[in-house]
Amino acid sequence: MCGIVGAIADRDVVPVLVEGLKRLEYRGYDSAGIAVLSVNDAGVADVRRVRRTGRVAEMEAAAQADGFHAGIGIGHTRWATHGGVTEANAHPHVSHGVALVHNGIIENHEEQRERLRGLGYQFESQTDTEVIAHLIHHHLASGLDLLGALQRAVKELTGAYALAVVSRKEPGKLVCARMGCPLLVGLGDGENFVASDVSAIIQATRRVIFLEEGDTAEVARDGVRVYGADNAPVEREVHVSDVSLASLELGPYRHFMQKEIHEQPRAVADTIEAVIDAGGFPAHLFGAAAPDVLADVESVQILACGTSYYAGLTARYWIEAIAGLPCSVEIASEYRYRAAVANPKQLIVTISQSGETLDTMEALKYAKSLGQAKTLSICNVPESAIPRASKLVYYTRAGAEIGVASTKAFTTQLVALFTLTCTLAKLQGRLNDEQEAGHVDALRQLPGSIQHALNLEPQVQVWSERFAPKQHALFLGRGVHYPIALEGALKLKEISYIHAEAYPAGELKHGPLALVDEAMPVVVIAPNDALLEKVKSNIQEVRARGGEMFVFADADSHFGESEQVHVIRTPRHVGVLSPIVHAIPVQLLAYHAALARGTDVDKPRNLAKSVTVE
Ligand code: F6R
Questions:
Q1: Collapsing DSSP states into helix, strand and coil, what is residue 607?
Q2: In sequence order, what DSSP letters do the residues of 53-89 get, joined into one string?
């Protein structure tokens, strides 16, 4: 979703802003803009702004054509919420020499708009953001300095924001504020930066301060001052980011999604490193407070969205079967609006790759408001909002995921959830030493099994040619593989735009079978587990209706191939971790089908990487 970058330096910051915006492109956006403070021959500073709908590259070309150069500026990628995708709605928004970029949503913008109209301000956009620019100008005009005007303005806003602001009146500083949306300050040498995501400034510095809720900051060339919610100066810790530049670059791959699919053996190996080092599942893998928090857990409630929700659905099978704890999994945006029955001994597990999905964050806040104090976050982005709001955290170590379609984040979430399952099972007295060692060993083998599944790519690619012309597809799975069917259908629809739905295979005859004919490809996840014979019977139901089947099985599933039934086999059944291995071929199928259809694989239409709006 929207992205922010800002810089103040002795050099020209326009390339820094453009580069930063390009690195934020993966989040999904529909317009981009920058504003800089230029000083004219008479030494007077003024705001220059360029905005374009479409790609950052178009905005960059316009900035170059207009000869944009400056030592201070702010930039933004916008994902439309209030007001359509137009240049007038793109950020930065400007009010009488104040320029501002904003992530988030201002809930009382109508009320503020009315008030500001009454004060004589005119509006050029339909955005909620423009009111903030006018509000800051209004307070500046009343005599406050830029920081004071920002601090006064944010007190009049309700909603969520990350803001970066420059003003021609004070051309030696940027000011910024954070509430509900991530924002960080990057510390350079004689130059400083602000950004909504560390990837935007990583080319300039790795030293960052993550602003906290309610913080404001003043960022000058030679220093940064941070103020807490009460406007008093505060010290915030300086972190050294370990985001690698390599994870932000394509290297030899055509797409980030392809790269990230292939990074899974490494990502999984990194994520299980702590388990392998510990030789088991001690509670402290989840943080110092974990032995206390997890000790008397009676049940588990998982909250997440999209692919992360499917990771949760998979984990339910493990948690109930291995740890013997009741587990429910709910879409975060549903949970947050229902009267859930609280149980203080229930563990609330939120799963979020980005750590900033608003629905998941709000579901967590809601659970806490009900008195649910046992909270655990599984997340891929250190210091993001959701882990910060949780008592316990397990970081997946997938590295930056740039492709909008989640791949390595999903499989590493599954690994983290399996680790949680074993940890809970141990605390429940349901895991003896031999079982514990067996599960550690299964995890140790996993990167190799994933690599074997990746080696199936040429066969999956052949299948994808048959998929590309289709309009619809069905995915079937049973038991712990049903969520993998759901994930396969989601991957296919989001990047190839082929309509796909997933069903538990046994449910077919209760309705969806009516859809099956020669034009409907049916993908079946059918490893050699306890439900294999049931799946085989379900397949006969499809076969009898003329449906063409694409079966992902494993070597020992003994599937007969025919003209109607195509089979790809993973080398061997990997037992309880089988859903993780079977996620790989469905990712590859979606990727190659999208490639064959010529869609924008890394930036599918209408979608954003980080969904920070409701
Ligand atoms: C699908 C996908 C989304 C996300 C969902 C939650 O490929 O990426 O469905 O899984 O938006 O995002 P996070 O995990 O960041 O909370």
A1: coil
A2: ES-HHHHHHHHHHTT---SEEEEEEE--SSS-S-TTT
Report the nearest atom of ligand 1 relative to the CA of 304: 16
Q: Quote the DSSP letter at residue 429.
A: T
- Give the range of the structural domain holding residue 542, as residue numbers without chain letter: 457-597
Annotation says 2 is catalytic: yes
For atom 11 of ligand 1, the residue with the nearest CA is 306
**pLDDT value of residue 43:** 79
Q: What's the pTM value of the predicted model, to 2 decimals?
A: 0.81
pLDDT tens-digit profile of 229-246?
A: 999 999 999 999 877 777
Q: What is residue 347's predicted lDDT score, i.e. its pLDDT?
A: 98
Q: Is the pLDDT of residue 410 over 80?
A: yes
Q: Are residues 327 and 392 in the same domain?
A: yes
Q: Is the CB of 352 under 6 A from ligand 1?
A: yes
611 pocket-lining for ligand 1 (C-beta < 6 Å): yes
Whole-number Å distance, alpha carbon 611 to ligand 1 midpoint, is 8
Report the alpha-carbon angle 80-13-9, nearest 5: 125
Query: Is the pLDDT at 338 greater than 90, yes or no?
Result: yes
Query: 603 lies in a domain?
Result: no
Whether residue 333 has its Cβ less than 6 Å from ligand 1: no
User: How far, in Å, are 243, 262, 271, 309 from residue 399 at the CA level?
Assistant: 7, 13, 10, 20
Question: What is the chain's mean pLDDT, rounded?
Answer: 93
Distance (Å, whole) CA 528 – CA 533 = 9
Rounded to the nearest 10 degrees, how much is the dihedral formed by the CA atoms of 389, 390, 396, 397?
A: 50
Higher pLDDT, 557 or 238: 238
| Cis peptide preceding 92, ω within 30 of 0 | yes
Q: How confident is the model at residue 86 (pLDDT cuts 50, 70, 90)?
A: very high
pLDDT in tens, 459-481: 999 999 998 999 999 999 999 99
CA-CA distance, 403 to 410, in Å (whole number)? 12
Choice from 350, 354, 602 to test ligand 1 binding pocket (greatest atom count within 8 A of CB): 354
Active-site residue flag, 609: yes
> What CATH number is associated with residue 265?
3.40.50.10490
Q: Which of 406, 487, 605 is the best mutation target for the ligand 1 pocket, counting ligand atoms within 8 Å of the beta carbon and taking the most?
A: 406
For residue 368, tell me if it sits in a domain. yes
Same domain, 302 and 437: yes
Query: DSSP 3-state assignment of 213?
Result: coil
Q: Which of 2, 176, 181, 305 is catalytic?
A: 2
